[in-house]
Amino acid sequence: MYHEEPKVQQNDLTVLRTSSLTGVIERELEHLILTGELKPGERLNEIQLSARFGTSRGPLREATRSLQAKGLVESIRNRGVFVRSVSPTEALEIYDVRAAIFGLAGRLLADLVTDQMLARLNAFLDQMDEIAASKNFDDYYPVNLAFHDYLVTSTGNATLVKEYKGFVNKLHLARARGLVQAGGLSVSNREHREMVDALASGNRERAQEAFFRHVERSKIRFRSTLNTGASA
Amino acid sequence: MYHEEPKVQQNDLTVLRTSSLTGVIERELEHLILTGELKPGERLNEIQLSARFGTSRGPLREATRSLQAKGLVESIRNRGVFVRSVSPTEALEIYDVRAAIFGLAGRLLADLVTDQMLARLNAFLDQMDEIAASKNFDDYYPVNLAFHDYLVTSTGNATLVKEYKGFVNKLHLARARGLVQAGGLSVSNREHREMVDALASGNRERAQEAFFRHVERSKIRFRSTLNTGASA
DNA sequence: TCGATTGCTATTGTAGGCAATAAACAATGG
DNA sequence: CCATTGTTTATTGCCTACAATAGCAATCGA
């Protein structure tokens, strides 16, 4: 008991010391947006939200400015701040840029890959195969996410990681957001194996192309579901 | 006289109507940072700057939050906001990501390229050859910039353009900033021709690789000037 | 009835003020 | 002489208050 108390308190203090109130609000808002509690197009009422967080409007406004720069909200003067709504066109653009960045991850990893890393990746593949076989698609999504996260993080390129995650977040604001996930669900694990095999070969260009194409195929799936006029 | 007065006033009003004071300050600060008037590591004094812009501290703080999200400044609680200083390591990371994005530009352009576009690009190449021959390096840099800008913009992918420019800006904050330019100066126009040729071939992968490698070579030049221990 | 105009209200934009913090310096003790 | 502790000051963090704006509804005139 005595050992935990100071630790917890120190954590709280550290949080308040490191990140300002603005930072806390920003993360909170980002969470609300990404979980869909604040939906695309919805206005962020300053008074209402600052009351909810128990602060004044100042820090909240600073937080929204930051989110605006990150592309999660847009601000219209004298009208307010709104959760961004990513159009299908922009979503397609983002898929391309994300493909390029993910491709870079493949290229970099081809030079960094170790046996240990390959073992970990194969474990991921097996796990996803298993889940896919059981048709338990709700379990597939998080593992798939962890797989991609592991790959991107393993490059050791912090700039790349940050960018990649930013785009993944933005895609959550795409209209017909469900389609983004739907596209991912039908991903055959074959593409993943191609990526891992390319890494194992140590061939930079091949790995880059495999990673790039994986995202491009997601894009194509996204687009085709769009055309069929499916709705949420 | 009478005809101009209202127009000027309307321009001012339009600017203030469209973008808030925060937006104006943000652009102004970004300019100060990128031109080097505010140097990496330097603190942005709120009182001083808000007095300079003739506003209160609120809008200024919002502007700096936005710049923070863009990676141009960093904020330390209770200490202030500082112009970011990009380490050599981070600069190398940025070069890689920029290469990936620029490579995507090449890939996209390979499918979009027209004779008219090729003519324009060849005009750029000739112009740069000319300048290089005259050894007037100060003229080379802006044309080189315009060349790259033209390429990126021609993709029609606004997300790509925004990202690319963001990274170019960030690289301006790299320590030994002169080296970034110095690296560019010695660029042989041959690389540029390779890029244009790749576009003319219409081969996606080839174009992507040519564009990618062009930036990678810049990175290598940057790194080598770093290792020789050259200083500003 | 319809359109324009004019007030009203909710909300954002900006300003300025007080409290809290950190860095620099002075004072004190060993 | 050095280390440590108290004090001062510049500066940031946050809040409250006021001004300005946009959207809306009611009113007025045709």
UniProtKB/TrEMBL annotation, chains A, B:
CDD domains hit by this protein: WHTH_GntR
UniProt feature coiled coil, ranges: none
Protein name: FCD domain-containing protein
Classification via Pfam families: FCD, GntR
Cited InterPro entries: GntR_C (IPR011711), TF_FadR/GntR_C (IPR008920), Tscrpt_reg_HTH_GntR (IPR000524), WH-like_DNA-bd_sf (IPR036388), WH_DNA-bd_sf (IPR036390)
This protein's UniProt keywords: DNA-binding, Transcription, Transcription regulation
PANTHER family listed in its UniProt record: GLUCONATE OPERON TRANSCRIPTIONAL REPRESSOR, TRANSCRIPTIONAL REGULATOR, GNTR FAMILY
Domain HTH gntR-type, chain residue ranges per copy: 19-86
